[in-house]
Specification:
homodimer, about 375 residues, alpha/beta, 8-stranded parallel β-sheet
Chain lengths: ~375, ~375
């Protein structure tokens, strides 16, 4: 049942952390990996070549946005998302669920799927597990996600159970649909990437027992790999780490584990310590556009007046283009003056910071010193 | 009187066109040259490295904007504009006059200079010929422009004469001031680039006799080189070419000639045919942000619906990053979706198109076939 074009191999472990290589139809990804978010087929403010230059090996793109505009039919006719956007490395697409729950208007959920209206033009749509699978097949990403229900935080245990069980039923339907698409032509669906893998998603809110039930049942369905969803939505941070730490042991060790939507650099370190391999988050890119830079000495708000005459780079320890060529004074000027280049330069730095942090983590794991890296990381973070 | 750090050497001629090398304190510029406009110390949407990659050898920046924000004092304390923005190649700054006339509020002109209020915060300012010289000395550009009066079009011959004569008086004051700054320390002015050259500006509206008088008198003052100002402001295009063609012979052949604010690719070819060496214009960058691309087959509006499924690059003959990696369909999607990347990718293309056109012009001049280049250029443009 597993996808021949997709693979994963753990190469090193250090404590609970692990290093590996994930293989896709568009190349390999060194894990733990961070996936920059290219919402509409582009990481805002950064060209693909600069993205690659920052060390990105895989891109995440949003099914909800691409489905609404320019449409998965159009992208399939262009030969799929890779060709359409000119990115030849791996791509993961989400199912669209998160944006339906956070962005769309007049959303109603039924057993069938999610009815919603487009935030662009108010048009009515129905996103079912099958439809989310079809759209991603047409996009031709290397990794597709199943449609899940995104539970609000906080929720009662009963609401969380009901939602988790619906997500399980949806996951079975999504898996059935993907296997139909793999088996042969399905009318109206152009499979842009026959080697596409599909990941299941563990839900269950903040309730250990529900997450364990979800993990076991999702693994029973048999996906190419598994994600932990529905976290980093407002719950206490230690609770998130605890839930992650108690979920990963129930996921197959020979498959990558993806913590969806997280997080801060600290979140990444802590989740990796608990056996997570993949991450995505808008934090480095969105915060960059708002003038917030992640540095080895903590966060830095470039709009702050005290940087107006500061000739130092944002992070003297960073090797990115922005830190090699721009002072805080110049970056502040660009931000205050409303220049597009502020978004570009800040995003280049934040992505490099995230991706470089992961490079250093992988190196620490390879040399069996992840725990000392983790300790030092937290000591530095607490000093800033 | 001429500036030791500044030089110009004509290496080839072909008809009225000429190829040369302009030397500045920050390196050489092959002429004819186009100067991308980096209004506030950055070309909107393009990093310096991409700008260099497009072939830019010199950048233009706007004194009005930098004076108001972040201020020439702050930039001087940072070591000058080159260091502040991290651009090590030549920079030309304008005098601020054009923006005072086009952007500032409540502007009044007296013999002393231009009183105006900032478009940013309404604060009152007086820009005199001396002040414009001082600001540019603090910025430390390689080439400073004298403050001139920007005449509205159309204007009567009397108004044009009066304005031209005031520009001449201002030019003498600006020259005197620069020589004072070169001679020794002047209180309150930090000279960031002692090798800064200063260009005079020929005015006179659309009146040949006034422009000839202006040219002769400006050359008599003795600047490092000369610009033709006040054109490309709405006058008939043939009249502009005619005025340029009758002005350049009165300017010293051993100094570069700069046509300010022009223009379309056709304008560049025609002005080069009349002996112009330097250009600046917001057209390639501003139009790029509005979705208009310059191509070898004419202009292309990427927002047009007919490009939604067009897999061709913007210009199949272009070798720029955008044309090598993006289809019209993708660029249209980015533009319609409001992505910053549309501005970046379109600007990269338009700048490359302009700079590559100049490379080809220089090559044509070197091989003595500028006239056949010009003929072919117009034939292709008329077919689109």
């Amino acid at each position: 049942m597993s996808q021949p074009g997709f693979g994963f191999r753990v190469t090193h472990t250090s404590g609970g952390a692990r290093c590996g290589i994930m293989t896709t139809a568009h190349g390999e990804v060194d894990t733990p990996a961070f996936m920059p978010v290219g919402t509409q087929g582009a990481v805002k403010g950064v060209t693909h070549r600069d993205l690659e230059g920052s060390g990105a090996q895989i891109l995440l793109s949003n099914t909800y946005h691409l489905y609404l505009r320019p449409g998965d039919d159009l992208i399939a006719r262009r030969g799929g998302l890779h060709r359409f956007i000119g990115w030849s490395k791996p791509i993961l697409t989400d199912s669209g669920a998160y944006q339906v729950f956070s962005l769309a208007e007049r959303r109603t959920i039924s057993e069938e799927g999610a009815h919603f209206r487009s935030h662009l033009d108010g048009s009515a749509h129905l996103l079912t597990p099958e439809k989310a699978t079809d759209i991603q097949a047409q996009l031709g990403s290397d990794i597709a996600m199943v449609l899940d229900e995104c539970l609000a935080y906080p929720s009662t245990v009963d609401a969380a159970r009901e939602s988790m069980q619906r997500t399980l039923r949806w996951a079975r339907r999504a898996r059935t649909r993907l296997l139909e698409l793999r088996d042969g032509p399905v009318a109206g669906v152009a499979v842009s990437n026959p080697a596409q893998a599909q990941f299941g998603i563990v839900q269950g809110g903040v309730y250990h027992e529900l997450r364990q039930e979800s993990a076991d049942a999702t693994v029973d369905i048999g996906f190419d790999a598994y994600a932990v969803g529905g976290l980093s939505v407002g719950e206490p941070i230690d609770l998130m780490y605890d839930l992650v730490g108690r979920t990963t042991p129930r996921l197959p060790p020979d498959r990558p584990r993806y913590l969806m939507g997280a997080g801060t650099p600290t979140d990444l370190v802590e989740a990796i310590a608990r056996g997570i391999d993949l991450f995505d988050c808008v934090l480095p890119t969105r915060n960059a556009r708002n003038g917030q830079l992640f540095t080895s000495a903590g966060r830095l708000n470039i709009k702050n007046a005290r940087y107006a005459q500061d000739d130092r780079p944002p992070d003297p320890e960073c090797g990115c283009y922005t830190c090699r060529t721009c002072s805080r004074a110049y970056l502040r000027h660009l931000y205050v003056a409303g220049e597009i280049n502020a978004a570009t330069l800040n995003t280049l730095h934040n992505l490099y910071f995230y991706l470089d942090t992961l490079r250093r983590i992988r190196e620490a794991i390879v040399f069996g010193r992840f725990e000392s890296f983790r300790l030092e990381f937290h000591q530095r973070a607490s000093q800033s």
